[in-house]
Amino acid sequence: MSSAEDADPPLTVDAAETPSASFAESPKPPHSAHAARPPLRPAHVIAGVAGVGAVLAAVGIGTVSLLNQPDSTPGEPVTANHITVSTPVPVIPLSDAEIRNLTHRPPDFGALGNASQRASCLAGLGYPAAEEVLGAQPVEVNARPGVLLLVNGDTSDTLVAYAVALNCSAADTGLLATTAIPRA
User: Fold this and answer.
1) DSSP per-residue letters across 112-173
2) Which residue, 4, 96, 102, 172, has fewest beta-carbon neighbours within 10 Å?
């Protein structure tokens, strides 16, 4: 066999069958209106640049303010002792001897000078309206103004001192402090 016999015969291509010929004959596809973009306007470009600039400025300012924030270092942890405000125990600001001395001078009723208000106050404290007040004096208990009223105790050898609010009545005595002391 000769090499010429083994060779394939040359191919002949018909012009109608070539791909370029088929494209040339097909019509162009119609232009889609929704795919068309209008040209960029200068106002749109400026607005976009300004928006990006504003975002970058906000991020920059926020970052700087967070980085420059002062450190919070509490000296001590917060406990109930720091939150709760306790008032001192109410105590009559007179000694036993000073309270006993009130029986040796005329009572100073101060704001309780009105006999009917005083009777109402005594009723609120559990005494009859006709109870004899042995001594009285204006006082302050824990920075609250009041009147000290000295009356007989449950036994003949005791005196009871009541510090009451200036508006003491049967409905609300406003009891500031009380103490019982022995008679001398």
Assistant:
1) G-SHHHHHHHHHHHT--TTPPP-EEEEEEETTEEEEEEEEE-SSTTEEEEEEEETT--SS--
2) 4
Are the C-beta atoms of 124 and 65 separated by less than 8 Å?
no
Q: What is the pLDDT of residue 145?
A: 95
Phi, then psi, of 158 in degrees rounded to 5: -125, 155
pLDDT average, residue stretch 145-164:
94
Residue pointed to by tokens 């009777």: 119
Query: 174 and 139 in contact (C-beta within 8 Å)?
Result: no
Buried b or exposed e, range 17-54, using 16+ CB within 10 angstroms: eeeeeeeeeeeeeeeeeeeeeeeeeeeeeeeeeeeeee
Average pLDDT (107-134) is 92
Sequence-distant (≥ 6) Cβ neighbours of residue 151 within 8 angstroms: 122, 127, 131, 132, 133, 134, 159, 160, 162
Under 8 Å between Cβ of 164 and 109: no
CB atoms within 10 A of CB 123: 16
Question: Which residue has 């088929």 as its token pair?
Answer: 22
